[in-house]
Amino acid sequence: MRHLYSLLFYLVLPFILLRLWWRGIKSPGYRERISERLGDVSRRNDRPIIWLHAVSVGETMAAKPLIDALLVRYPEHQLLVTNTTPTGSAQLQRLYTENVQHCYFPYDVPHAIERFLDNIKPSILIVMETELWPNLYHQCAERNIPIVLANARLSVKSSQGYQKVGSLVKPLLRKISYLGAQSQQDLERFLQLGAFNDKSGIAGNLKYQMTVPDDALKQAAELKEKVGERPVWIAASTHQGEDEQLLSVHKELLKSYPNLLMLLVPRHPERFEDVARLCHDTGEGVVLRSQHQLPTLTDSIWLIDSMGELILFYAVAEFAFIGGSLVKTGGHNPLEPAALQLACAIGPHTFNFTDIMDTLLTANAIEQIETQTELETLFLAWLNQPDLARKTGEAAHQVLQKNQGAVEHLMQRIEGLIAT
């Protein structure tokens, strides 16, 4: 099955590279450093390498507490972090300017993987969440490189998909040295697919280790002062099909609160221009972060068309809506605003964060709405009674604090594997 998989990957590789070029029209980062995706990477120094892979922005932010712990525990090692997307790459390089080496993740074809491993020679591979690559895992096992699947999650839908290719997935899972699942449900699904029980456990969710940098809080306080005394809400990580609905919600809220300011943060940079047009089409005053503009009292929409600043603008807002949930994308991380005690609403589609959502909903720490009208009603209630929003935000922060501990669990396992 692995050989058949490799053959198919080789056949589609030209089309993958063509897609990179096409996506690079709107996001030039996709056209940069393509040779790294084919395994052409050099070591920065002679220190032993700890390799951590985080696909994109969300996984990179989730991995940050673990990366920080690795840097402290293994100062004699070089930490290499790979990403798949330019946005993930940019986020990592903003977080770590010197002490972390970065490159793109190699495509899972034998020659690219072999070239990468020959060049890097990692002491261990730590993979975030659910990245299962047959050739990578096979080559690591052949070279006795331990593999840790950290923050591992597996939805019901993904599990059903993997079961259809069980003969490929089962031997792959059995090459993992330790699988640290986010929850009991995730663990059970991995075990059903063939993971070893004695090499798997519940590590918890690294996303609960979320912290807010002091410099972000300081900068947010400065922005709040410049914005002035007015209510502010944020529509975070929005996707196509959501912006129109959220702008419509904002327009309705302005009838009751004419000085209300909306921060609109699209998820993907290639959509910035389209979302800017939508904002201008509302007829409201609009300013753009990319133009280093600050909203005046005549402006009611601040389009955050920049990358890596979401936590900063969460800190500027008084309550939030989390995107990717009014459309069937599965939602985005609701724990980032929880770190700021920020009240949040989210739409019906949250299958990417099922366990976290269950925990937050049980604690009355988030509001889940089904329709645009419900969102308008909720936000009006929060604007009319700020204490309601404050209680929701405080409950979310308590949930965050009660569920920490994943870093310590994973570090114990990693230390045992690096020592062997």
Could you give the topology of this structure?
Blueprint: H1 2-23, H2 34-37, E1 49-53, H3 57-73, E2 78-83, H4 86-95, E3 100-104, H5 110-120, E4 122-128, H6 134-142, E5 147-152, H7 156-163, H8 166-173, E6 178-181, H9 184-193, E7 200-202, H10 214-227, E8 232-238, H11 243-256, E9 261-266, H12 272-281, E10 286-288, E11 301-303, H13 310-316, E12 319-322, H14 335-338, E13 343-346, H15 354-362, E14 367-368, H16 372-384, H17 386-402, H18 406-419
Could you walk me through the main structural features you see in this protein, from its secondary elements to its overall organization?
Helix 15 (about 355-360) links the parallel strand 13 and strand 14. About 50% of the residues lie in helices and about 15% in strands. The longest helix is centred in the first third of the chain and has 22 residues, at about 1-25. It has a seven-stranded parallel β-sheet with strand order 3-2-1-4-5-6-7, with helices on both faces. A seven-stranded parallel β-sheet has the order 10-11-9-8-12-13-14, sandwiched between helices. The chain folds into two domains: about 1-205 and about 405-420, 3-Deoxy-D-manno-octulosonic-acid transferase, N-terminal domain (Rossmann fold, 3-Layer(aba) Sandwich); about 215-400, Glycogen Phosphorylase B (Rossmann fold, 3-Layer(aba) Sandwich), CATH 3.40.50. It has helices at about 1-25, 35, 55-75, 85-95, 110-120, 135-140, 155-165, 165-175, 185-195, 215-225, 245-255, 270-280, 310-315, 335-340, 355-360, 370-385, 385-400, 405-420; strands at about 50-55, 80-85, 100-105, 120-130, 145-150, 180, 200, 230-240, 260-265, 285-290, 300-305, 320, 345, 365-370. It is of the alpha/beta class and about 425 residues long.
